[in-house]
């Protein structure tokens, strides 16, 4: 009976003062400067060194050097930012927003790493 009264009290408070629940994703979540939302990669800077994958405590990152692929399993990522700290090229960052909601489970997000652009050879002089 005590629990019923407690629940009724919460319901009455919500009716009078409004619900404390956030209507995410109908209403967007609030992000703060320190929010560790999700890992983002700048693919043009990555050198496929695998340091991020080796340091990741949950094995969320996979680097396929041969296929020039960098993958992240967002369901495994705990947003610890270790990968960001160790990346020698500073191409990883913690974006302070969460991954967008979806209706199907995406196991891994796959990024193709383009080889670094080569500077054109110096023009040959005819003389
Ligand atoms: S933030 Fe942490 S858990 Fe997520 S991918 Fe980076 S190292 Fe792994
Ligand atoms: S540590 Fe940085 S440069 Fe190395 S594979 Fe990871 S993202 Fe790419």
In CATH, the topology of one domain is named Alpha-Beta Plaits
Q: Give the overall shape.
A: elongated
Largest sheet: 3 strands, antiparallel
Strand composition percent? 15-25%
Order of helices and strands: HEHEEHEE
The total count of helices amounts to 3
Rg from Cα: 23 Å
Strand order of the largest sheet: 2-3-5
Structural class of the helices, strands and pairings? alpha+beta
Q: Could you list the spans in which at least 5 consecutive residues all have pLDDT below 50? A: none
Question: Architecture of one domain, CATH level 2?
Answer: 2-Layer Sandwich
Helical coverage, percent range: 10-25%
Span of the ends, CA to CA: 100 Å
Ligand set: iron/sulfur cluster
Number of DSSP strand runs: 5
- The residue-averaged pLDDT reads 88
CATH class of one domain: Alpha Beta
Question: Would you write up a description of this structure?
Answer:
With 127 residues, the chain is of the alpha+beta class. The protein has a domain of 82 residues: 2-Layer Sandwich (Alpha-Beta Plaits), CATH 3.30.70.3270. The model has no long low-confidence stretch (mean pLDDT 88). The structure holds iron/sulfur cluster (2 copies). One iron/sulfur cluster binds next to α2. The site of one iron/sulfur cluster (SF4) has 14 residues, from α3.
């Amino acid at each position: 009976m005590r629990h019923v009264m407690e629940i009724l009290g919460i319901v009455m408070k919500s009716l009078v003062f409004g619900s404390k629940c956030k209507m995410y994703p109908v209403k967007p979540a609030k992000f703060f400067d320190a929010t560790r939302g999700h890992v983002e990669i700048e693919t043009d800077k990555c050198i496929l060194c695998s340091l991020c994958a080796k340091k990741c405590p949950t094995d969320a990152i996979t680097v396929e050097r041969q296929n020039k692929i960098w993958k992240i399993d967002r369901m495994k990522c705990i947003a610890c930012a270790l990968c960001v700290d160790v990346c020698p090229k500073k191409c990883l960052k913690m974006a302070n927003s969460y991954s967008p909601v979806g209706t199907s489970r995406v196991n891994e997000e796959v990024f193709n790493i383009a080889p670094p652009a080569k500077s054109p050879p110096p023009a040959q002089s005819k003389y």
